[in-house]
Amino acid sequence: MPTQPDEFGDKRTNTVVVNLGRPSLQILDHDGNITFSAPFTGSNTITRKSDGRTAIKTFENVKIVITANLSVVQGTTDAASRFTPGASPNPSRAGAVRIVEQGGDAALGICIDFPALLSVVIEDDGQGGNTPNELDRIAEVVKASLERKFRTAGFQYCLAGVNNKAPANSGDSFVLRPARFSFSVIHGDDDTSAICMGILLEDNHNAGSTPPPIEFTPKDSHVNPIPTGRTASVIFGHRVMANSFIVPGLIKSLSNVKCVSEKGDAGMRFEFKLPSHQIMARKYEEISGEMLFNMDGFSFNLDSPVSNLVFSPTNSSPTPPVKLSYTSPPQTMEWNSTDKIGLHVVSKSGVVEAEFSLTGTASWGRGPNPERYPNQLQLLFTFAPQLGVKIEAKKQEWWKSFFGGTNALPPHARDMDLKTPAISIDMTPMDYFLTTNLLFPGEHIFHVDDPSQTTEMQGLMTPRDTILTGMVRRK
User: Fold this and answer.
1) What are phi and psi of 413, to 5 degrees?
2) Which domain of life is it from (predicted)?
3) Would you write out the chain's pLDDT as a tens digit for each of its 475 residues?
């Protein structure tokens, strides 16, 4: 501090040293106003100019509380993904939509706007030991200098952000690339506040030219989309998931794929045609002694009618997270039998109606090479080994009973057993590298939870949009 005269007119020099502790941040409102708090200790060394004598006054159990707002600023990232604000950062508040520049090192960061900070207060840190007068004296010594220090720090304190630097090698996958970026704030207590970042993709499968409102409102209730015990979530919009991953991924193995979810539906629903597989049984004949039995065959193809793929809004057992189903057209088979018992010939006849079903499930998992491509998401399909059979006897008209007509099922009909044909659905994985391109201070990244190990509190779920949970961790 500059030289000042003391109360006796002798000049003195104050040398102030401040050591800031680990800061904390608290969100104040939905507009992105925050408080930045940091405990500090320090000393004020007073040196009298006339004789060089010094006196040292120390202070502790105090903290600085800065009120400021969060802003998006333009900048760059280095090889270690550290964010540096640009010379013309062009700050904008929550809700503003910014274009993510393509390629290079360009990035957008959500930073504390220290140049336009709103207030600086020196307070007791809660451990006591400082009277109001002592706090005033400490503030008189350090407040102005600390405020200047933070204002000149500019936008160096980056909380999170996004860039568009494509992965060096994403393999055979669909890559989601950010085009526009916006953020909002969910305000709650210390455990329920969150920063929400909205990203519009280059392929613009989101409606309109700006990201949709960034809020999580299941059943019209504003809640935090980060479950207890996790520190981050990524939410893929229903349309993005359907049009950028599910539909193009299924087209690789299937045909006529389309999303049939309607607004307000839980989960996701798709229709498609399975590959052509003819399922048939020839006419059955059996002769045993005096008994003769005949039953019609049947034939249908798995490519008609359409099949369904349903993503459950919950992962609770016994409902599978993703279920594939196909039901054949009704198959009608007539049968008859004759048997000679002594001198009598007994004739029977009937009609059997059957529907055959194919079922499969899909589980979420990482891509085929998770070590090399850690940001890939894939659906892995399995099918039941046997086709399901729903069979019943068609009720005969009453008069046919006089001629052997019956409503019973013949043994052959009850014993139908059809194996599922060899079907392979190989989905191209989705590379969600944009989530790991979210930038965090201290070389932190978003580390996703394993989608194949989903529980009620973590993993991947599709209440309608797709939620993938994770943790912010060091690289």
Assistant:
1) -70, -35
2) Eukaryota
3) 454 555 444 677 878 889 999 998 888 888 889 999 999 998 888 888 777 788 888 888 899 999 999 999 999 887 777 788 988 889 999 888 888 887 678 889 999 999 999 999 999 888 877 888 888 988 988 999 999 999 998 998 888 888 776 655 555 666 777 788 888 887 766 556 788 888 887 765 444 455 544 556 655 666 677 888 888 888 888 888 898 889 988 988 999 999 999 888 889 999 999 999 999 999 999 888 888 999 999 999 999 999 999 998 876 555 678 999 999 999 999 999 998 877 788 889 999 999 999 999 998 887 777 777 767 788 889 999 999 999 998 888 877 777 778 888 888 888 888 899 999 888 888 876 655 556 666 566 777 788 877 777 788 888 888 888 888 776 6
Residue 457: which of 163, 281, 231, 140 has the closest Cα?
231
Q: Are 3 and 12 in contact (CB under 8 A)?
A: yes
- The candidate with the shortest Cα–Cα distance to 253, out of 277, 279, 278, 272, is 272
Type of residue found at 269: R
Single out the residue of 434, 438, 446 nearest to residue 475, CA to CA: 446
* Residue 111, both tokens: 């930073």
Name the residue among 363, 439, 351 with its Cα closest to residue 395.
Answer: 351
Q: State whether residue 397 is helix, strand or coil.
A: coil
Q: Which residue has the tokens 């007994």?
A: 346
| Boundaries of every domain in the chain | 3-73+114-155, 248-414
Question: CA-based diameter of the chain, in Å?
Answer: 142
Distance CA 121, CA 129 (A): 18
Tokens of 109: 């960061």
Question: CB neighbours of 284 closer than 8 A, spacing ≥ 6?
Answer: 293, 294, 295, 297, 412
CA distance 178 to 164: 6
Angle at 22 between CA 140 and CA 150, to 5 degrees: 45
Q: How far apart are CA 27 and CA 190, in angstroms?
A: 8
Contact 123, 106 (CB under 8 A): no
